[in-house]
Design goal:
alpha/beta; 186 residues; 36% helix; Helix Hairpins; 8 strands
């Protein structure tokens, strides 16, 4: 078993979070790193889209069709566009859930030292001499900077991974090269 601060369910059980068999074909699509809470939110959204929104859009289509001539029917066009968007979102959510890798906490002597997905990092921008900021590194699906969650794929998240408390890192941001001091990792 790897000695990481956080492990996926695959590391612990040898199968994907969605019950996959772990066969060679399972790695064909990109993994979606999620917390258990994030996976629950995706499943709730998928359920809402399939069981509520689909029915609403189908009813709107039925009404629009009843108006007659579809070639100049704006309600019909809107409903068809909404249906296409809805079905696309359902497919996207199903793919993310199928490829979900749950980030679970793993206690070890390294805990609080090396940054990994799931770590909460307190750092200070030394370039701008700003106040300390704390963010949790999460998968791209759950990223929400307004909720102090940054993606492992973001410029800052990508560079912070595998660094430790006390280190200083240089990060290329849209505003230019910034120097960050890592204060604390939990």
């Amino acid at each position: 078993m790897p000695d990481d601060d956080f492990l996926t369910d695959d590391d612990l059980e040898g199968a994907s979070a969605s019950g996959g068999s772990g066969t060679a074909g399972d790695d064909d699509e990109e993994q979606t790193f999620l917390t258990r809470e994030g996976l629950k939110k995706l499943k709730e959204e998928l359920d809402e889209l399939k069981n509520v929104r689909r029915k609403e859009v189908a009813q709107r289509l039925k009404e629009a069709i009843s108006y007659g001539d579809l070639s100049e029917n704006s309600e019909y066009e809107e409903a068809k566009n909404e249906q296409a968007f809805l079905e696309g979102r359902i497919l996207e959510l199903e793919r993310k859930i199928k490829n979900a890798k749950i980030i679970t906490e793993h206690r070890s002597e390294k805990r609080g030292k090396e940054i990994s997905i799931g770590s909460t990092v307190t750092f200070r921008n030394r370039t701008k001499q700003s106040d300390e900021e704390s963010y949790t590194i999460v998968g791209a699906t759950e990223a929400d900077p307004f909720d102090a969650k940054i993606s492992n794929e973001s410029p800052i998240g990508r560079v912070l991974l595998s660094h430790r408390s006390g280190e200083t890192v240089n990060i290329e941001t849209p505003a230019g090269l910034m120097r960050y001091e890592i204060i604390k990792v939990t």
